[in-house]
Structures are given as C-alpha cells and as structure tokens.
Write a structure and sequence with these properties.
This protein is of the alpha/beta class and about 375 residues long. Among the domains are: about 150 residues, HUPs (Rossmann fold, 3-Layer(aba) Sandwich), CATH 3.40.50.620; about 60 residues, Adenine nucleotide alpha hydrolases-like domains (SH3 type barrels), CATH 2.30.30. The chain is built from nine helices and 17 strands. The strands form four sheets. It has a six-stranded antiparallel barrel. A five-stranded parallel beta sheet has the order 3-2-1-4-7, with helices on both faces. The protein is globular, with a radius of gyration of 22 Å. It starts with 5 loop residues before the first strand and ends with a strand. The relative contact order is 0.12.
Length: about 375
Amino acid sequence: MSKKGRILVAMSGGIDSTVTAMMLHEQGYEVVGVTMKTWDYASSGGTSKETGCCSLDSINDARKVAVDMGFHHFIVDIREDFGDYVIDNFVDEYIAGRTPNPCILCNTHIKWSSLLKRADMLDCEFIATGHYAVINESAGRKFITKAKDDKKDQSYVLWGLSQDCLNRSIFPLGPYTKPEVRQMAADWGYTDLAKKGESYEICFVPDNDYRGFLKRRVKGLEEKVAGGLFLDTKGNEIGIHEGYPFYTIGQRKGLGKAFGEPMFVTEIRPDTNTVVLGRIEDLVRNGMTVKQINSMKYESIPADFEAVTQIRYNSPGSLSTLRPKGFEEVEVDFLSNVKGVAPGQSAVFYEGNDVLGGGIIFGSR
C-alpha cells in the first residue's frame, strides 16, 4: 500500500472525475476507480440515445484511464437502490405539486452510501469525487466551502452530506478552475477528454423531457390530470392546462396558450388540479419554510442568523435571516424580495463562502 493510503475514486468517464483520479494517482495514493451504474435509460421507454454517466461509452472511458494509469477499476450496479429511492421520489414530488432536485437526493442518500460501502469492502480509507468544492474544518466539524471557480462551484448540491461522509471525502478539484482542469487532461495526453463537453441533464431523463418521463412512468397519469384549470391570481378561470404535474413554479414558456402578456406559473394546487398564473411581480416572495435540515458548519443553525440563502443552482443567493424551529425546520426571511421560490427545491445557507447547511423548500410566503 502507498504511503498516502488507498482511496476510492468515483469515475463517471467525464473529464472532472478522470482528472481527479489521475491527480490522486500522481500524488501517490493507491487509487481504486469505481463507476456506478445508476440507470438504464432503455427501461424508461425513451427513444433518445443513452448519454452521460451511465452509458456504455462513459463506463469504457473510465476503464481505459484506469488501465492506462495502472490502477484497479470496478463497475457497481446500484440501479435498484437508485430507482427505489431517487426515481420514486422524483415522481412523487411532481405528483405532490413540487419540483424535485434528484441529483442532490442521489448525492445525499445513494452515491455516498454506496461509495463508503465499497470503500470499506476494498479497504479504502477515503473516497474522492470530481466535484468543484472544498472541505474545511472548524471546532471539530467538517463543512463545505465554495470552489475557486465560481462558474463551476458545486457546493450547492452537497449540502446534505453528513459529518461521517465529509470526514472520509476528498475533493481535489476545489482549488482549480475548469480551464486548468482541461489543461491537466491535455498535459497528460488526453486531448479528446480535454475537449469533452459538459453533461447537465438528469441521468435518467437524458432527453430533458421530464413530462414524457412522468407519462411513461405513471400509467394513466395523463388521463387523470388533463383538463385542469388555469386561474389568475384573483381566482378567475383563464384557460385549460394539460395537468398540474407538467408545470413548475416560474415557468413562462410551454403554457399552451397566449395570454396577451407574459404569464408565469406562481402556484400549483394538486388537490384541485389547478395552476395559478400571474405576472412576474406575482412570483415575488419575502420568506419561506425549509425542512429536512442538515446543519453542516455548526451543530445546529444559529438563531436569527444573517446568511446568504441560495434557492437554485448557480443563483447569486439572497441575504436573509434564519430562524430555526428545532433541528428540522428553518423559517427564512428574505431581506429583499425573491422571485421564483419553488417547493421541492433545495435551499442552501452560506456564511461567506462556507456552507452552514441546507434543506428542502416546503412553502413560501
């Protein structure tokens, strides 16, 4: 075993995880690569070509690097766990009128659990991924800090990691920018990899048609929800929609009807199959309720704490006051009004560049 120790590296076949593995190998770690098969797109009934981290090409790309660099590589099939938890939650949230973020749920409950389980089986002390984030420590607690590259920072999607996960995790790319990572790949002779594009779609919806996925997944859904009412903010009927699960808060395009002025989805009411539309100013909220809290930097979220709250990936965040109600719920008061608060999405609280913690948005006001 190397002096640095044995480390399990999650390898999707993309540039970030590949450079992560190569960096750690060069630094003297005994690297063990693992590629997780989370989803078989053909089983969803989709017609698009399978792409992303679960495709055969991606698995082969990861394996090739491991062979080139001389370390072991394994494929782990977690489709059953992934489907039962992540996909079922994805469907259930839309049926409940909320907008889920399956990638965050997968990180928190599936990928890290699977990685740590395999790390123990393979006698690996640490696990590493290609996320752009930094792990820091204060007063005996580990926490996430934003990466050097603002455009690639992924601290928002890691708010749910526990202390046990953070204690065994390494994010080598946090101190680097994406162009620097591409240059590393080129310097190692992987010029094609250095030019490889980004993958932004949900892995089990690679065609980005989540409505089609829901229709295929829930038999008879379309017939059950079609023909609901569009209402304006005063309760007046202004049209017919295709079914409330097929709309999200803040949506403007794809409403299926012209209203003479820009209209946005401001509220979804699953119990009556109605969707409320309003003007852009009707999206404004001054607060929200966040539940399923994971406190990261401190043992609990401090009372009446002023933080920057981010409600979607790559948003700048908004200055706010946090008012915790026990350990599982936080009331957030925005110091300036915020548009498009969507129940089901994640809210992440920052103290400067440090992640205080986060949770799931349950309601707004």
